């Protein structure tokens, strides 16, 4: 019963988000709370509450279950508080640098090279996103890339959806580096796997995935070039664009002298260097950097107050999403629903799949990494998968490597904290963004799996096609995919009908469903 409730919680939440029936902040917190309350009336979480409160199951009352729901929510918020504070100070830090124009030279240089060509700008977006993603921190990547490129996208009328999709998928690939979150968690759970061997095995799949994403950039860039054409910008027009950006952005902008700008550059490079070296917690790095940046750039109190007022909306919109994600994770984990989802993902594959267990792990890692947090997957699910793999004769490396394949989809999960910063900065809808990025994420997943087959990192599966369980799994998978596609298509057609658009215009302007910002 708890497994059914867990999957219902996930499906209801994702359906509401995809159909735009509820704001992600409300959905993340309200849906699990409602399901937990309903489950309490049916006594579904009695054992989980008894374990949590350290009491006998027979002594658990309905009031105890309601109290536990509150405690679980608080636990989740405490767990995500470090991320929330890190995002708070990271946004403030880079907002200071954006306000004083630290990234303006980068933006201007991109414009000089691209000369208003959408193709060059989108390819440049991919390259910049990949390079900055080497830091291993999604928040930092988002802030730096968006600070440099959003003004260009707005001025030229490019779709911010393209920026959001390219950035997140490039970051998805580079997020497999050993100093990034998922790989670091995997290495902690499987001590027999070393960082060097996992990096060597991942290099080729990552390189091919990056090449694939650059082709995606070319494809989307050509589409934008066809829609907008090429703007031949002169140096004078570029300078004018930079000035108009300051006026059109709606964000406070100030000018600082060369000495202060040099200090800002050194402070930013130093913060990123220390962040990559892992000498201090990211939250402390950005806290300290923010305090120094504010003291240097806004020595006058009224000016600092004006700056804080100008960025408070962006800060609040991002931080509350992380807090809501904490509520979801706290209830989902402590109630046992996370474990139930994990076990159901493992149990769906019959023993006949044993010879192809690394491939099974790779498949499980896709929905596992999307529907539950990385902490829950790598610390809760992976040990179960690895233990089963050892029984089938596979090493910890086989299991650890395969478990990383599903990260192609993880960054699209509503449980990934920093995506709300990206969505807030680019002003794109979560459901539209997930649909737009999902097909390319699937391409990355296929490339990673296919390359792993070729290198032998994942053995080519010997599928038990003669087993009825195999075909049951296949039919179930196809049915779920078909249901999702049908639901999305019906919703899309309904929106088109309400807008009074004909089927022909629906085909002609299909690509215009994505978010776009008109040129200034």
TrEMBL record:
Q: Name one GO cellular component term.
A: membrane
Q: Which residues form a coiled coil?
A: none
Q: Where is the Citrate transporter-like domain?
A: 81-403
Query: Per UniProt, what is the membrane topology?
Result: Multi-pass membrane protein
Q: Where is the composition biased (Basic and acidic residues)?
A: 504-520
User: Which organism is the protein's source?
Assistant: Microbacterium terrae
Q: Does the keyword Plastid apply?
A: no
Where does it localize? Membrane
The entry's protein name is Citrate transporter
Q: Region Disordered: what ranges?
A: 496-520
Q: Which UniProt keywords apply?
A: Membrane, Transmembrane, Transmembrane helix, Transport
Query: Does Transmembrane show up as a keyword for this record?
Result: yes
Q: Which GO terms describe its molecular function?
A: citrate transmembrane transporter activity
Q: Which domain of life is it from?
A: Bacteria
């Amino acid at each position: 019963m708890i497994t059914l409730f867990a999957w219902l919680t996930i499906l209801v939440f994702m359906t509401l988000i995809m159909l735009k029936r509820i704001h992600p902040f409300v959905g993340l917190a309200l849906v699990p709370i409602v399901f937990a309350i309903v489950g309490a009336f049916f006594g579904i979480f009695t054992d989980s509450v008894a374990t949590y409160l350290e009491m006998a199951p027979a002594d658990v009352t309905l009031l105890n279950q309601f109290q536990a729901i509150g405690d679980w929510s608080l636990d989740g918020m405490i767990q995500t508080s470090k991320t929330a504070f890190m995002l708070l100070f990271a946004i403030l830090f880079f907002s200071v640098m954006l306000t004083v124009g630290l990234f303006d030279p980068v933006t201007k240089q991109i414009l000089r090279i691209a000369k208003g060509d959408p193709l060059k700008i989108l390819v440049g977006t991919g390259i910049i996103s990949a390079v900055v993603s080497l830091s291993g921190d999604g928040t930092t990547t988002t802030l730096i890339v968006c600070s440099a490129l959003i003004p260009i996208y707005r001025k030229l009328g490019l779709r911010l959806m393209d920026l959001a999709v390219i950035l997140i998928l490039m970051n998805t690939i580079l997020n497999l580096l050993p100093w990034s979150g998922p790989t670091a968690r995997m290495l902690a759970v499987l001590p027999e796997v070393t960082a060097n061997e996992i990096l060597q095995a991942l290099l080729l799949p990552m390189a091919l995935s990056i090449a694939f994403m650059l082709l995606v950039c070319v494809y989307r860039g050509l589409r934008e070039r066809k829609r907008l054409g090429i703007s031949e910008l002169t140096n004078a027009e570029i300078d004018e664009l930079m000035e108009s950006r300051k006026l059109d952005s709606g964000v406070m902008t100030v000018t600082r002298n060369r000495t202060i700008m040099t200090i800002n550059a050194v402070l930013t490079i130093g913060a990123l260097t220390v962040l990559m070296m892992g000498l201090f917690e990211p939250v402390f790095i950005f806290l300290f950097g923010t305090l120094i940046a504010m003291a240097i750039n806004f020595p006058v109190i009224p000016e600092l107050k004006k700056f804080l007022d100008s960025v408070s909306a962006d800060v609040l919109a991002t931080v509350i999403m992380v807090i809501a994600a904490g509520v979801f994770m706290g209830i989902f984990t402590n109630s046992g629903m996370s474990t139930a989802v994990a076990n159901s993902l493992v149990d769906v594959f019959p023993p006949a799949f044993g010879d192809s267990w690394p491939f099974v792990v790779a498949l499980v890692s896709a929905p596992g990494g999307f529907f539950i947090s990385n902490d829950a997957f790598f610390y809760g699910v992976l040990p179960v998968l690895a233990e089963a793999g050892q029984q089938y004769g596979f090493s910890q490396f086989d299991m650890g490597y395969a478990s990383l394949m599903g990260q192609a989809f993880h960054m699209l999960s509503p449980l990934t904290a920093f995506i709300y910063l990206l969505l807030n900065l680019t002003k794109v809808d979560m459901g539209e963004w997930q649909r737009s990025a999902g097909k390319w994420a699937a391409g990355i997943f296929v490339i990673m799996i296919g390359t792993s087959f070729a290198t032998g990192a994942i053995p080519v599966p010997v599928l038990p096609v003669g087993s009825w369980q195999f075909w049951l799994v296949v039919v179930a998978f196809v049915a779920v995919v078909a249901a999702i596609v049908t639901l999305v298509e019906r919703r899309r057609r309904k929106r088109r009908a309400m807008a009074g658009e004909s089927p022909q215009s629906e085909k002609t302007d299909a690509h215009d469903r994505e978010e776009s910002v008109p040129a200034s």
